[in-house]
Amino acid sequence: MNFLERILDGLHREPGRLLLQEAWSDRVERATAGELLARVALARRFLRRAGLRPGDRCVLLAANSIRWVAADLAIMAEGLVRVPLYTRQSPAELVGMMRDCEPALIVCGDDLLRAAVQELWPEAPVCLLSEVGAESAGGAATTTAAPGAASTATVAADTPPLPRRAQDPLVIIYTSGTSGDSKGVVLTTGNVDHMLPCTLQRLDELMHGHAGQERVFHYLPFCFAGSWLLLLSSLSRRSLLTMATDIDKLQEQLRLASPHYFQNVPLLLERLRAGIDKKLQASAAGGLYRRARVAWAHEQDGRAGALDHGFLALADAVLFRRVRRKISPDLRALICGSAPLAEETQGFFEMLRIPVLQVYGLTETTAICTMDEPRGRRRPGRVGRAVPGIEMRLGENDEILVRGPHLFAGYWKRPAETAACMQDGWFRTGDQGEVDAGGLWRISGRIKNLLVLTSGHKVAPDPLEERLRLAVPQAQQVLVVGHQRQHLTAILTGEVTAAQVTAALEKLNSTLPHYQRVHAFHIEREPFTAESGLLTANGKIKRQRVLDRFAAALDALYAAPVAPGATAGRGAGVISSSGRQA
Question: What fold, for 168-174+332-447?
Answer without folding.
Answer: Luciferase; domain 3 (2.30.38)
